[in-house]
Prior knowledge:
TIM Barrel, 12 helices, alpha/beta, 45% helix, eight-stranded parallel sheet
Amino acid sequence: MRRPFIAGNWKMNMDRAGAVALVEGLKEAAKDVDYADIAVCPPFVYLDAVAQVLKGTNIGVGAQDCYFEEKGAFTGEISVAMLKDVGCQYVILGHSERRHIIGESNELTNKKLLAVLKAGLTPILCIGEMLEQREADQTFDINAEQFLGSLAGVSAEDMKKVVIAYEPVWAIGTGKTATPEMAEEVHAGIRRLIEFRFNKEVADAVRIQYGGSMKPGNAKDLLAQADIDGGLIGGAALKVDDFMGIIEAAK
Length: 251
Ligand code: 13P
């Protein structure tokens, strides 16, 4: 049985006071949750403040990205060691907004993922097709290409530590959720791909989150699917009650 993992991706939202208030509320509301892993991923500049509030609680902290080099002349970038230093355990990588707005490739995502694993943090690797790709029947090919490209050179032992987030781009922030059946079809396909690329033991161990307009109202049906092991939540992670509603749906 894979332990559910619910993570909030705050994206470029919040100010410092709002970030601290949100995690103060969440810390209290989620203090008895023992059936799932929980994490929040604030913008870089609020990681330190958020991690201090969450120290010693059952809520982990993640970053939304990182750079793969250890140190040096890389203006504007943040290393994995810096993230670790402020208390991060997770790093989101290959989010569709980074792939499609910033233009990040599988190769760059792969370098970052290897750096995160090397530092002993947990990567949350996002993959997902765009609407026109789904309509052109390329859903499996696109997800497989992103999966294989982003995970080049990863050992079976390391793969067990990776979390995959399937985020159909057309469902992100649009209010359009994949139906539980649509999501499960892709999740099951990703699990077969993990078995093909690694082995069955790894495929059974890896957690695959769903992301894309997950809300308290649809979370239960999504999380009830055999291969959906959690959620990566955008909009609904910005309010304690909504995020808690999703966490409780994982019970
Ligand atoms: P929404 O939940 O706002 O659709 O965002 C999903 C997402 O991109 C999480 O990484």
